[in-house]
Amino acid sequence: MQKLDELEIKNFLKKALGWNLNNNGLEKTFILKDFKEAMSKMQHIAFEAEGMNHHPEWFNVYNKLEIRLTTHEVKGLSQKDFELAKIIDEIVAK
Fold first, then answer.
1. Contact at 8 Å (CB) between 57 and 68?
2. Which domains does the chain have, with CATH numbers?
3. Per the residue annotation, which of 5, 34, 57, 72 is the catalytic one?
């Protein structure tokens, strides 16, 4: 796994709508219908993340889900972060 440089990050961010760069990580907040939907989406994301061996940092209160993606091994962002961000967006959109 390789750490992305600034130009690569800027190019990936153009496709990662709603994701923000903050302190070497990608962050996004989702507002869902209710707690049950938030937990359901989190479980679905968890299975996908486990399959990638790339796990998000996240926080949930009722219908609000805050997600942060970073690659600890490279101390920054890797392609895996943007791949998982895309998967998360697809899961939440369902």
1. yes
2. 6-93 (3.30.1360.20)
3. 72
